[in-house]
Amino acid sequence: MYNKTLTVAALALALGISNANAELVTQPLPKPNMIGGKTLMQSLQERRTAREFGRRAVNDQTLADMLWAAVGVNRQDGKRTIPTARDSQDLFVYVLKNDGVWLYDAKVHKLIQVSDKDLRASLATQEFAKDAALDLVYVSTNENSMYGAMHAGSAYQNVGLYCADKGLNNVVRGYFDKDALAKELNLNDKQQVIITQAIGWPKE
Ligand SMILES: Cc1cc2nc3c(=O)[nH]c(=O)nc-3n(C[C@H](O)[C@H](O)[C@H](O)COP(=O)(O)O)c2cc1C
């Protein structure tokens, strides 16, 4: 379990994404927008898989909101929008987008750049997937892979409900080469890719 007081740099180091000689590139995210939206019951009514994406970009506010929905800190004591076994908080969300790969650091609500490569094509094992504005990759460091999978399921459902609220399309995706992706993300043997989620606005 990672120490909850880890700084951004230490988190990056622990996750094997830091280069001792290079400055970490981080991107602050806008605060999650808590105003407006559908009711929870309406979002549940509209939650669905939609395998079609338009060209509209996902802006920083939308990205910030969906990452916060996934695993964000929602209380003063640092706990999250998803429950985790023994409060392990060991589910990590990577974002694959056109300007590279980013790790969401929930504690400071920032992105840490992992790579400047656009890796979305490596997940396009189904034709529609190549059009997604971004892919979320859920990575667990829990030793119990069942717990890791449960944590990821909680997070992708939160994101699915967020997408339903905003009218974004999304597909949870297990059909991709996990080992190849883990290699591309430079993961170590304690970090397990659980599942991905392709997201984007519908076609206009
Ligand atoms: C763990 C999991 C893995 C999935 N993998 C894929 C996938 O690789 N490709 C895909 O097109 N849909 C995938 N789906 C989406 C399901 O096909 C979809 O949820 C199901 O058909 C029910 O549709 P609904 O989400 O609209 O209720 C996956 C869903 C889950 C929960």
List the helices and strands and how they pair.
Blueprint: H1 8-14, E1 26-28, H2 40-46, H3 60-71, E2 91-97, E3 100-105, E4 110-115, E5 134-140, H4 145-166, E6 169-173, H5 178-184, E7 192-200
Antiparallel strand pairs: 1-4, 2-3, 2-5, 3-4, 5-7, 6-7
Helix pairs in contact: 2-4, 3-4
Bound molecules: flavin mononucleotide.
List keywords for this structure.
204 residues, alpha+beta, NADH Oxidase, seven-stranded antiparallel beta sheet, 5 helices, 21% strand, binds flavin mononucleotide
Describe the structure.
- With 204 residues, the chain is of the alpha+beta class.
- It contains 5 helices and 7 strands; from the N terminus they run H-E-H-H-E-E-E-E-H-E-H-E.
- A hairpin with a 2-residue loop joins strand 2 (91-97) and strand 3 (100-105).
- Helix 2 crosses helix 4 and helix 3 packs antiparallel against helix 4.
- The structure holds flavin mononucleotide.
Q: Could you give a quick summary of the protein structure above?
A:
This protein is an alpha+beta fold and 204 residues long. The protein contains five helices and seven strands. It has helices at residues 8-14, 40-46, 60-71, 145-166, 178-184; strands at residues 26-28, 91-97, 100-105, 110-115, 134-140, 169-173, 192-200.
